[in-house]
C-alpha cells in the first residue's frame, strides 16, 4: 500500500510539473497559434501613445509594437490602457504584453516581469519658470498634478513625504492630468519630460517647463511571471533591434534624441 501511494504521489508530482512546464510555454505558443499579439498601449500618453489627426493610433510605443508583431509574424491588436490599469490588464490576460511607457521598478517586479529595456523615461517636476522650484522642498505650500499609479506618482510620493503642506491631486489618466495643467487648474505637474511639450502645445500661453528631474527609468515590455519562453524571445528581440538601430530610430523620431549610449552599447 505504501509503495502504491508513493507511486501515485510521484505520478501526480510529475503531472503537475509537466503541466507547469507546458503553462510556461503557453504565452508565446498562444500568440503564435492565435496569429495575433495583444499589446497594451497607453494612447493618452504622447509621444509614447496617441491618436493622430486621422484618429489613428500612433507614437513610439505603437511603432515598437508594430515592429514586434511584424518580427513575430502575427497581427497586432492594440489594447488601450491607462497608467493605473496596465498591471491589472496584464494579470487578467486582457493583454499578452504591455508596451505603455512602462518603467522598470522594484515594486512592479514583485508582481510582473519585464524584458530588457527598449527605451527610457525621464520623470520631472514642471512648473512656471518665474517660480523658485529646484527641489521637492520648494513644493511646500503648492498643489501639484500627477497621473495616479504612474512612475511619476511613485517618485513624487517619495519626494514629498517629508515636505509639509503639499497637495497632490491625482488624475486617472495622462490626458486629464495634462488638461488640468493646460487649462490652469494646476500650475505644477509631475510627469514624463515628454509630456510638457504636449501641455504647452495645448495652451501656448501656459508657462510650464521642466524645473528638476525626479529620476530616469529604463522602459521594458511588461509580461506576466513564469513565462520564460516569451521573456526569452522578447529579450532577444530587444537586443536585435537595439543593435540594428530600429528601436533607436523610433526613439529619435519621437523624442528628438538617441537612446542612451549604455543601451546602444
Automatic annotation (TrEMBL):
Residues 1-25 form the signal peptide. It holds the Pfam family SBP_bac_3. Residues 36-258 form the Solute-binding protein family 3/N-terminal domain. Keywords: Signal. PANTHER family: ARGININE-BINDING EXTRACELLULAR PROTEIN ARTP, MEMBRANE-BOUND LYTIC MUREIN TRANSGLYCOSYLASE F. This is Amino acid ABC transporter. It comes from Noviherbaspirillum sedimenti.
Amino acid at each position: 500500500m505504501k509503495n502504491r501511494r508513493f507511486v501515485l504521489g510521484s505520478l501526480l508530482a510529475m503531472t503537475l510539473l509537466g503541466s507547469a512546464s507546458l503553462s510556461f510555454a503557453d504565452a508565446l505558443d498562444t500568440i503564435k497559434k492565435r496569429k495575433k499579439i495583444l499589446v497594451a498601449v497607453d494612447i493618452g500618453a504622447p509621444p509614447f501613445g496617441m491618436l493622430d489627426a486621422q484618429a489613428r493610433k500612433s507614437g513610439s510605443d505603437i511603432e515598437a509594437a508594430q515592429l514586434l508583431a511584424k518580427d513575430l509574424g502575427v497581427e497586432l491588436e492594440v489594447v488601450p490602457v491607462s497608467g493605473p490599469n496596465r498591471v491589472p490588464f496584464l494579470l487578467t490576460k486582457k493583454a499578452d504584453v504591455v508596451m505603455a511607457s512602462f518603467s522598470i521598478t522594484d515594486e512592479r517586479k514583485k508582481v510582473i516581469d519585464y524584458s530588457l529595456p527598449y527605451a527610457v523615461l525621464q520623470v520631472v517636476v514642471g512648473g512656471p519658470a518665474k517660480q523658485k522650484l529646484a527641489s521637492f522642498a520648494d513644493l511646500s505650500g503648492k498643489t501639484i498634478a500627477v497621473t495616479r499609479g504612474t512612475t511619476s506618482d511613485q517618485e513624487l510620493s517619495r519626494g514629498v513625504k517629508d515636505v509639509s503642506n503639499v497637495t497632490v491631486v491625482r488624475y486617472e489618466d495622462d490626458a486629464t492630468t495634462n488638461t488640468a495643467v493646460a487649462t490652469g487648474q494646476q500650475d505644477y505637474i509631475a510627469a514624463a519630460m515628454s509630456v510638457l511639450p504636449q501641455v504647452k502645445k495645448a495652451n501656448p500661453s501656459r508657462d510650464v517647463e521642466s524645473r528638476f528631474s525626479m529620476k530616469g527609468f529604463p522602459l521594458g515590455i511588461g509580461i506576466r511571471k513564469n513565462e520564460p519562453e516569451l521573456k526569452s524571445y522578447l529579450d532577444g528581440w530587444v537586443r536585435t533591434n537595439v543593435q540594428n538601430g530600429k528601436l533607436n530610430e523610433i526613439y529619435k523620431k519621437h523624442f528628438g534624441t538617441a537612446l542612451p549610449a549604455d543601451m546602444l552599447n
